[in-house]
Amino acid sequence: MLELDDIQSGVLRPRPTPYVATYILLRIDDRSAGRELMGRLCSVVSSSAHPQSPAAECWVSVSLTYAGLEALGVPRDSLDSFAWEFRQGMAARARALGDEGESSPEHWEWPLGTRDVHVILTALSPDQARLDAALARADEALRALGGVQILWRQACHALSTEREPFGFRDGISHPAVEGSGIPGSNPHEEPLKAGEFVLGYPDETGTPPPMPQPDVLGRNGTYIVFRKLHQRVAGFRQYLKDNARKPEDEELVAAKMMGRWRSGAPLALCPHHDDPALGADPRRNNDFHYADDPTGYKTPPGSHARRTNPRDASVAGVVRLHRMIRRGTAYGTELPEGVLEDDGADRGLMFAFIGSHLGRQFEFVQSEWINGGEFLGLGDAKDPVTGANDGTGEFAYPRRPIPRCLKGLPRFVVTRGGEYGFMPGLRALRWLADLRT
User: Where do the DyP dimeric alpha+beta barrel domain residues begin and end (predicted)?
Assistant: First the structure.
């Protein structure tokens, strides 16, 4: 059984809709102050127990970077037991992740990707009042605590459309985790083994994944990936306009690239026209598979949604080994509807990916499924929406009587920074607080 009272609430809970969120990056300048902070956060961070309570909808989560664990004075043998991708950090993994050119770490927002980032606090709530209350608890933990500095804040909020900046309904798909008590959004997907997302339990291979040591530090923790992704909304709209034969064709092209209509309705269930009622219905908008569409006449194999979660496609034997919990929260102002010129504002998503295996979950999906196409026989074709395209890429999708090919795909999403974090269990937070040099 999952020890829900020791697992941070931010690990297993779906993002509320609507939502507001704040991300805060901290640097530990004094080891004793950092340990004191870990102790104070024990009363701020909520657990995954009681998933149906109103308080469960609002939470504060804490994650530590590898540099943060070093700053706290975690023993060397413990540090060496963490996943090697985590020890390297996201900036060092940039080439494997497609973070090159304008997305390379040299262009990231400071302090993202540097050794100055030690602690990542995340507060998430359905409304501003409850978020303010959660942030007040976090601020209380930091008050009068010298030796810990706030370096960076990012405020996020649901857009008026309750969609992500490109205009697509977000936050639809969430996997069921055995023992969590939280249902998944796809009735066709069997609950995944807890070890895929929480350390200390068997995963889909039948054995527990490697876990940081000692046991009290690693158990009930997990790895989390933070990404700040700038979205070129005007450029995306202009590309649709340039590649549509008529105005109504723009929405079809957008749906083919994403795998869903902007309403959230999946092409798998309504391939020829949008169905906003279906897209808004959480009981139906994720209730589908791809077994009846192997060629992709309904949902193109290269579309974003099908790439990132192929479900029961021909690679289904390995899909469950690459599933992640994904959460996105929008930042920045909305670009007014119909505007095709970039106004210079920074807008996009703060993305979080949760899983026990950084390598075979996040990094594999990012490198092989988003920035590669071999797994579906697509050659080197990249994800048409989030891939590291450079203006020369193509996106082809099946169509009768002949396929259609969109050329000259530019980069629509630019990485502005990111971090690999470790989300410890609540007992591990107390262990970190009680460390002695």
Answer: 58-141
Alpha carbon distance, N-terminus to C-terminus of the chain: 34
**pLDDT for the residue 9:** 92
pLDDT at 308: 92
Give pLDDT tens digits for 175-232. Answer: 999 999 888 999 888 999 999 999 999 999 999 999 999 999 999 999 999 999 999 9
| Residue 384, C-beta contacts closer than 8 angstroms, at least 6 positions apart | 257, 302, 303, 304, 393, 395, 406, 409
- The verdict on pTM exceeding 0.90 is yes
Side chain identity at 393, as an amino acid letter?
G
CA pair distance 55, 40, nearest whole angstrom:
19
Quick one: which of 193, 204, 112, 179 has its CA closest to 152? 112
> Nearest 5 degrees, angle CA 187-CA 178-CA 369?
65
Cβ neighbours, 10 Å, residue 294: 10
**Which pLDDT band holds residue 56 (cuts at 50, 70, 90)?**
low
- 315-331 pLDDT, tens digit per residue, is 545 888 999 999 999 99
Q: Give backbone dihedrals phi and psi of 118, rounded to 5 degrees, phi first.
A: -115, -40
The three-state DSSP-derived secondary structure of the chain is CCCHHHCEHHHHCCCCCCCEEEEEEEEECCHHHHHHHHHHHCCCCCECCCCCCHHHHCEEEEEECHHHHHHCCCCHHHHCCCCHHHHHCCHHHHHHHCCCHHHCHHHCCCCCCCCCCCEEEEEEECCHHHHHHHHHHHHHHHCCCCCEEEEEEEEEECCCCCECCCCCECCCCCCCECCCCCCCCCCCCCCECHHHCCCCCCCCCCCCCCCCCCHHHHCCCEEEEEEEEEECHHHHHHHHHHCCCCHHHHHHHHHHHHCECCCCCECCCCCCCCCHHHHCCCCCCCCCCCCCCCCCCCCCCCCHHHHHCCCCCCCHHHHCCCCCEEEEEEECCCCCCCCCCCCCCCCEEEEEEEECCHHHHHHHHHHHHHCCCHHHCCCCCCCCCCCCCCCCEEEEECCCCCCEEEEEECCCEEEEEEEEEEECCHHHHHHHHCCCC
